[in-house]
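quick one before i forget lol
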Amino acid sequence: MIDNCIENYAKPYNGQPMVLIVDPGGQLKLVKWRLKSDGFGVLYTDNIASVKALTIQNNVQIVIVNVLIYRDLKNVIAVNGIKGNFVLIAFTGNNAGLKKQMFDLGVRRTFSKPIDFPKLSLMVRDELKKTGRDRVTQSMKKHDTASLGLSRAYRIVLDHIKTAVMITDCRGIIVCVNRSMALLLQMNEDDILDNHYQNIMNELSGTYQYKLLRVLQQSVETLEVHGTTDIMISNGNQTLFPVEADAHPIFDKRDNFIGTFLTVGGILGSETFKRVAAQSEKLAMVGQIAAGVVHEIKNPLTSVRGFIQLLQREAPGTSKAEHYNIIIDEIDRVNNIVNDFLKLARPAHLDIRPFDLRELWEDIRLLMESEAFLLNINIKEELSENIKPVLIDCEQIKQVLINVVINSFEAMANGGDLTVRLTENERDKEVCLEISDTGMGMDEETVRRIFIPFFTTKDNGTGLGLAVSATIIENHGGRIEVKSKIGQGTTTMIYFSYE
């Protein structure tokens, strides 16, 4: 009986299911007439603004759009912004990058030109049957009081747990969001539900909420688990706290991708969050005290170094002169540690200006080329053209990059390759500077701890170089990530946002 209901509901000639063709360029008129001749109910428009009304007023189950160039993606985004239970199909060329972006935006299937019309008709009929089956199932559930009661129970549980939860379907449409997630995104639940996650990301561009949804996006793009503990959120009092975000793809019993869910832990109101807040206040106080102590240490160090230099002049050519040299070197080393610690405790004022990272790298390459030659290290460059400038303090970012390059040089004691890549992600409005080496690499535990102050794997290291670098990048509103494996080298990625 159920199968008969599905078949009758899905038949295109009964006037109920409709296919909407969105064709601003007027290139899909032949598709309209061919589908009509095959018995499908077809609506056609060349005006993107009329799509919402057509889907609301008619039983639209399939929307077909024409996407031949990247500029046409705006039509896909506009259709995705409409709430409705329909499948999105696109006609496109053979551009793999364009197809990937369309799938990210919720396009279920694509067709390349020239169009195989018999195959198209079979596909449309198949999708209409699937949609009919889904609607019959939903209709049955509405009359199933036990299922309805269970759904309400799930909703109550989700709204009362502290963990923020968001679930999307295979198209990227948000089908579930609990109260904690809505509070975290600072949006109404009704504005989130039935919306594409990419639309929400566009609204939240440049915020910490955007970074949370970026974790979800990475899981959708790779169909793998993604997580991070590096995102800082605000409690409304200009105090930042770390949260843990994890995104997982969802597969059915046949390993078909059916959706993704995002969870965010340690958010406002939880006991863990309160403990972290108290700990952060203590650390801030310790940082202020440490900054004062550092200043008190620097003053006597300067005096001691001056007097040692005076004594050094009185004993030229003697064994004592060599001892004085050692003392001065050690004082300079202590002074460098103190300076790094001061930067960590109280970062310097930023002199922010627009700057081209290509030019910045060229300056650093000139500084490092001679040492690379002596160490038998080959520097390779893969720098994209027309990279947008980013707002940075040039001198501080130079310090970060030089520190990363020196670490790579030290990891390649027997020579190797250092590869520098510069790319731009227009969708996320980010520029990425990537530095890769073919050195000894690091294990997972070392990678996890390298940004912790005073952690080092070097005999004479201070453990402050990368900690200071991470602080500098964070103060620029960017992020730094490291990937490494033993024997396979290390890659450091530094991301900067632009408007």
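fyi The longest strand covers residues 240-251.
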